[in-house]
CBLN2 protein
Amino acid sequence: FSATRSTNHEPSEMSNRTMTIYFDQVLVNIGNHFDLASSIFVAPRKGIYSFSFHVVKVYNRQTIQVSLMQNGYPVISAFAGDQDVTREAASNGVLLHMEREDKVHLKLERGNLMGGWKYSTFSGFLVFPL
């Protein structure tokens, strides 16, 4: 799957306290295992999966931190915190061993994300089935 966010993402607009980063457009979703409404990927089978994300902060003098969550636990994080740069990006990627029905999503730990022009993206795919 590959998803983008086309509008800015600020915590005040979220309807819950999970701080899940919601995406509003799917570019690729073979098998439909990425649920756009919840922005959660559910593994269809046991295997090794690759995930990557790229997010851009909205304001200078701010730090953003994003974590990739597997079954509710942070696996990797990325941050951007240069106080003098307005449009700074944070990216990370990982290979994960996942069981069938494991869930992965992005969590905004702090800050606000740039969404316009599809700067913020989240992608994943099965590398090797087990």
